[in-house]
Amino acid sequence: MPKTSLRLGELLLQEGLIRPEDLDRALEMQRRTGSPLGQILIALGLVRRYDLYRLLARQWNLPFRDLLQDPPDPEVVRLGSPEQMLREGYLPLEREGNVWHIATARRPTPEREARIREQLGIPPDDVVQFYVTTDWDIEQVIRDVFREEVIHSTVLGLYYRRPHESAYTVLTRGQFAVLALGLLSLILALWWAPYPTLLLLNACINIGFLAGIAFKFVVSLVGATAEQWEPITQEDLAALRDEDLPRYTILVPVYREANVIRPLLESLSKLDYPRDKLEILVLIEEDDEETLAAAKAARPPYNVRFIRIPDSPPKTKPKACNVGLFFARGEFLVIYDAEDRPEPDQLKKAVAAFRKGPPNLAVVQAALNYYNRNENFLTRMFTLEYSYWFDYMLPGLARLGLPIPLGGTSNHFRTQVLRELGGWDPFNVTEDADLGIRAAMHGYRVSVINSTTYEEANSRVGNWIRQRSRWIKGYMQTALVHLRSPRKLVRCLGWKGTMGFLFLIVGTPLTFLSAPWMWVMYIVWLLTRTELLTPLFPPAVLSVSLFNLLIGNGLAIYLNMMAMFKRKYYDLIGWALLNPAYWVLHSIAAYKALWQLLVRPHYWEKTVHGLTRYETPALASESSPAA
Amino acid sequence: MASLATKRLRSPQNRRRLRKLLLHASGLVVMSLPLGLVAWESARLGFLSHEHAYFLAKALLVVDRSRVELLGLIYPPLPFLLLLPAPTHTLALVWNVVLAALLAWLLGLRLARLGFAPWLAALVVLAAMMTPGSLFVATQALSPILLLVLLFMAWRYVQLFTHQRWTWAGFVAGLLLGLGFFAHAYALVYGVVLALVGVFSVRKRAPGELQASLLVLTFPMFMALGAWSYTNWLFTSDPFYFLRHPLSSPFVYARPPSSWTAPGWTQAFWRTWADVLSVPLYMGLLVLAASVRPASLIVYLLPWVWIFVARGGGLVYEPPFAQLTLTVAALAAWPVRLPRRMQPFLVALAVLHLYQGYTTPQQDELRMWWQALVQHQTHPSWREEQAIGDELRSFPRQSILLDDRVGYRLVARTGTTEVFVLPSDPIFGLAMEMPERFVTYVLVPHGASVAHYGPWVALLRPPPNFVLLEAWTNWALYQRPPRAYVGVVAKDLLTRGLRLSKVSERRTFVACGVRKFL
After folding, report:
1. Which of A61, A371, B192, B449 has the largest CB neighbor count within 10 A?
2. Structural domain contains residue B23
């Protein structure tokens, strides 16, 4: 191909690959965003990737190589580090004597060549011959050649780097010994002195409940006042210029969700972010041909890439996300579920939050809520719960500087920090909550932003219990992981943070597990007025118990009401009174979780999405508390 | 450490916070000084208000017996809880003064926000808080002052909630109103009134917002009512027992006749009218508010109407409390920034308010207190009461049978409940049946005071065979007969198979201590 001095746009026009008005549009966008023209053209779908790189090869005076037609030597490819090659956009193809054939997706400058030589260990006397190829080809080859390495690093990466932070081991020997000893002591105590033991247990449970109520009340009160200080204002957003915006990666793990792919892509296309700076990675399991076919049929824009997740155990969302992280090129990264509908300004708000926040701010969490809230009792209660959690609890935790267990989606990361932290733990079934705590343990901060992602609330009881039992099991796993070294926990989180961890992560499953015993005792007493239970409730315990029953439960209901009011879901406020019925479901799920922790600790209970009969709403009609 | 503190102080935000805190603290101290002086002088003269005595007696009981569950039967529990850390008269006075100073300071801040010149705000607050009636509530009535403080604070948050649409403010307002129920039963009425006024003062509302706002503002209050009713039902089988306790009940019929008489509708009207006339600030501001914003007249009339309805309906609303309620309501409800032309009116109203406060004839406890204060003279009955208390303090443990629904003042004066057997003690019922078996002494009302106590008091007469040991103006102490008799009684007790066990302690308490004597 003859060398040309024409610019890329002129070349494209000359070749008839683009219309002048499209080029003008792309150039205008380039002026605004400062991105390379080629990237913009691909993102806008104005030029095929293959054509663009062919022309770039002509412009750079290098040969073009289609790696799918002419694959490289895997042995040579293996000489490089996959992470480095992905980041730098090159690939060693073959070696013939002292000549190295290297494919690149970026212009090879002398500095770049020096860097590549250093990374591949090419002797100074050897010659490097560059070829141009597409970034997509490079990624594809790396995925094929390094398949085992990718599996290994995404599944066992954290376990090998920091085994004490991985949930691969459910119980350490020490923990097992302590638990066994505790259980044995309890049985012996029950046999030897049943009433005093039960009294002690009852007192501990009630005091624990009381402390939990006090903790949640304080956090909620602080979270409620956060309304006065919007984390990100419209002025903050207006101050962001497109050319200063960083590259952003969106990870969307999907599995057997062919029915939600199209709405997902539509909703992501509404995000207010320069398309050329947005990289959307749809993570599809290898055995999920149905979803892949649906995704292809939806004809996604060029900034959407499908990443096939190698079919290997454990088949979990965190593993898929780790694979996504491996290929992510954005400075920031966010996860959305397939059924998510983020508010359009969410990415910009996250960028503004990272810029306003301290340097150690590693994650910002957006609120989650539901678009099918009025579908049935379950969706209403779920909406109450989420509104309280994301609009009151999380802002409160953030303001108090306590560790935040991240929500399943809409958590925005600094990609580099996420890699440093080891990504998600694929053996933890609430990898998000665990990651939030891990970030805090490593001295990073987690904050919240006033933007909402709307999801589909679980509308079927069986499905809800499956999902909830996974969450509670995940909390148990997270608790066990971080309690392996209590001293380290205190050292890293401080006393305040440790208390927050204990109340949230340890306290939540314990509350759900112990609450049914309280309810049973209460109902038995109410029906029979038996005196048998009287010794378990000496005056002090009775007072605490009554406080929990009357004030504690009342406060929990009230907080849910306030959260509904904040969301302007006025019709749901009265439903808060039915919370006790919803808590029963939590306890059922908690016992299922406990059983699963013992028999199938790493099993991922898949939540089925797309069950709602509600249409995805237009986001404009939704009300965010910050809106 | 020091450098860290300095660093923190250097932040402008922290400096601002500190300045604000210092300003509030100094404002509170300044307001507390005159009130504190009045409280100190009345304590020096030996005055102990019925209300302080009641809460003190209960707090002493709980502390001495280490029985937290008694909390469930004391209403209102909040003032009582404030005294629990150290149940002394001094603490009761300190709380009263601090709360009143807080109310005064908050009133001043509100007036300043409404454009009152500082001197004028100070004058109005001074007039509001320095009349004998106000001073009495400010220093001697814990429950009413607590209610007024909570309501005033709640009102501010209700306004922020309804006008600024800050839901956190609604949250705080709801909690304050809920807390208000634990300070005084009238919080239920005022809470609903505040919620209604707040919600209806906003014109533009989304569908459903009105009901939702009302619900979130009043839910904690009704939750508190439900919780307290449940607790009372649990311990006494009567969910509204707390409303019938003779010393804290809002119902006239449940009170000792000496404390308040049911006026009937006509009398209630005239009594309330008299109260309104004795509060020129209320009358004046009502007229001025009606001239600048006629709609606010409704807000002004609500407390007036409630005081009248409460009294007419057989509820207790003492004049000093009513007058301070009207004063606070008048200042809290002022609807607009004060026009400059109204300043002279305000000055005149403040002066008139003070004049009226000092010239209106006082009644009952207030009259005695004010006379003593003005004349610097201790009332003989207070001296005698204190002397009884001092004497009883040296008696053996649980040796005196006393019904504290009558003798709460003596319990408070004694400063301990160790020497008494009281209705909340499990053995009280048995001691009433067989005093010889359980106590050495019985303390009963004596002389004219007996006529004041209704049928709700258990112990009005000495048991047979007990001999008079000592008699005072209103009280008489009887002593147990010789020991030989006790043996017979003990035998009798065994044959009747009465036992006390820890398991049935609570039930016995419920059966004997409460239900029987309602």
Report:
1. A371
2. no
